[in-house]
Structure formats: structure tokens, C-alpha cells
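Researcher: Go.
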Amino acid sequence: MWTANEDGTPIELIKSVSDNEEGKLVASSIFEEKMQHQYKFSDFVVLYRTNSQSRAIEESLRRMNIKYKVVGGLSFYQRKEIKDLLAYLRYSLNQQDEASFRRIINLPKRGIGDTTIDKIIIAANDHAISIWEVVQNASSFLGGRASGPIDDFVTKIKRFAIEIQNKDAYEAAAEIAKSSGLLKELYEDKTAEGLSRYENVQELLNAIKEYVDDPEKEDKSLGAFLQEVSLVTGQDENKDNDPDKVTLMTIHMAKGLEFKNVYIVGMEEDLFPSQMMLSSRAELEEERRLFYVAITRAERKLFLSYALTRYRFGRLKNCEPSRFLDDIDKRFIKVSTKFVNSEPSAPNSNYAKSFVSGMKKSVSSQSVAKPTAYKPSADFAPSDTRSLAVGMKVEHPKFGFGTVVNMEELGAERKAKIQFADFGEKTLLLSFAKLKIHPN
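Model: Structure:
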């Protein structure tokens, strides 16, 4: 066999500090390769071992306005289990969110059928009150056996609301995921699909933990996290028929396909090869064959990526490079220097720990003057923001006084861009932001 192709480029190895950083480096590399070589976005594919890994890649591509498609599955924030937990978090934060109420009232199943839900909605409409007021007084409006499960639901939501007030985003979300019964239901499903769904929920909790641990995030509350998710994913529902998109898929889905440029992410021990495939030599060799499938999808250029740390079950875990990297002749590997500083050729867990620790110290040691925390007015009470318009003066409980400079529709949501006197410009979703409108 022979080829008339010219000699190919070496395999490029991308090292990153964390899984979140890995997403940013891969997105930046895709953009740079496209610009330098006049590729189309459809010439790129990102392959991963497990579906849950798509979250960091998707968020980074979105932030760079790079369109993508997930093959063989849904975008991370469109997966049912993610929508379910987010609905619980949103309703615990805002009991006026009717869409979230409909999603979680019988999730997990608690014996509340569609007929009961219809009665709740009709009662709210007939008495011109909110659904939350109806369910808080279920025995008066519904009577019978239906009021028992609804009372239990109300008690949970009230407790969750207290958790949100007293804890940071991760602590509150982890408690809600556990006490709602969602995690237990997913954990007990031992099918391959059930395991994937459980991993996805854990990845969402990892994302929240990473958000809380980020020293640049001033507001560690669950409301702030949910607002950021809504801003990033607000256009997910829009149909886009543009074929020029980066492809994201698991390695299993990639069999038989080829792309000009291939990125294989998560090249770490216990991830690829998978921890669940290390109980026998035969399973390990199957993982090795899967790696061969992945690397042979590349027509022109191959990128391998791994992170030194990765959040697993809410904890920052030190990672080791995959043993499969050692199987590749070093003559064919080039360590990427485009996006990261030089590092030891074989970083170990101690190096990872000191590297991350050094990063955190450098961030905390920066002498950037931050505005002092704002204390809201004694009579502060959130206003109805349906009438909010450009030019209005508002007060926020954390950012103080500001002026609305732009209003924008985001699907079913409305967001306001506000210039605050002490905290600069902020973009806030009105369904989450607590604003008091002041007369001009």
C-alpha cells in the first residue's frame, strides 16, 4: 500500500491545568487552525470517551461564538436529566416559575397525575393567584388524597429555598439533587444509559463546584450560577440549519467517519482508558483498540489533550496522563506551546497540585482594588420588572445603583444591561435579578 500524500504533521499534545481550561484551549486551537489554513468548522471534530465531557467543550465553543453540533445525542444542557435538576434549582429559587413547576411536580413520581396538575392550574386562574399559593393550600383547593403528596413537595421546596439562602451554589445544588430523589433514581439505574445520565448530573454539579471555586466569581450564589447558564444557553432552542459546524461526539460514535482535524480530549488515566474497563487485560485491550479507532479518524492533523486536574464528584482530583500516550513513539508527538507555558515533560500529581496552588496564589495576590460590598437601602424591595426600560434607574442588592442601558429578549427570557456606578456594566436576567426601580 502507498500514498501520494505529503508527509503529515506530528501529533500535537495539549496540556491544560483543568478540564475547564482544556475546553478553552481546544476552542482556541480550532479557531486558530481555521484562520491559518482556511478550513471550515465542519472540518473539525472533538472526540471524548464519555458524554459528560462535552459540557466544558460546549461552553468554551459557545463563548467564542463557534457553532457546533452534538452527534448521537443532545447538547449537554438539553439532556433530560440536566433539565430536570436545573428545573428543581430554578423553582427552589423562584416559586413563580411555572414551566419548572410543571416539570418537577411529579419528579420523581409522587402520585400527582396530569388531572391534579390541571386542577391546580385552573384553581390558580379562577382565584387570580399564583400556582405556588394554590399548592401551599392544597387541602383547601383540591382536598382528597392529592393534597398529601403536594404538601410533601411544598415542604421540600421551602427547605430548598432556605438552603439556597444559607449556602453557596454548590452546597445548595448538591443538597437539592440528593434530597429531591433525582440522584438516587439515576444511581439505581444500572443500565449504560442510566450510568451516562448519572455521570451527566455529576458533571453539572462539578461545573457548579468549579464556578464556586473560581476566585474571579464575586457572587457564589445559586442564582448567579443559574443566570450565567441561562445567558450562555439562551439560544439553544433556536433551529440552525447551517452545516458549517464543529462536530462533537463520543469515540464510539466516530467509527467509520473521517475528519480533516481531530481533537481527542480527556487523555487521562481512569478516563481513557476508562476506570470501569481496567478489571481485565481483555477490557484494557478493547480500550486500546478504541483509542486506535479515535486516532485513525484524522485525515490531516491530530490533537491529543489532557488535563492535570479535573473535578470529580465535587472534588478537584489530580490526573495522570493516559498510558496510551506512552505507547506513541515520541518522534511523532509535538507538545503544543501555543496556548500554555512550558511545563515538565511528565507532570505528576505533585506538580499538578503545586501548579494549581501557584495559580490560585497569583490570582489572590493581584492588587486589584475591588469595590466594597454594597448594603441595600433599608426599604429595599424588588419591583415588578415587566415595565423595565432603557434609561430607568434601578437598585440591586449587591451592585447598588445603576442605569439600564440596553434591553434584549433571550428566547422566553428578558435580559437587561445595566451600568452600575461602582461595579461597572452587568448583564442580568430579569427572572433572576432582584431590582428595585427608582424614579428618575
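Model: The chain has a mean pLDDT of 84.
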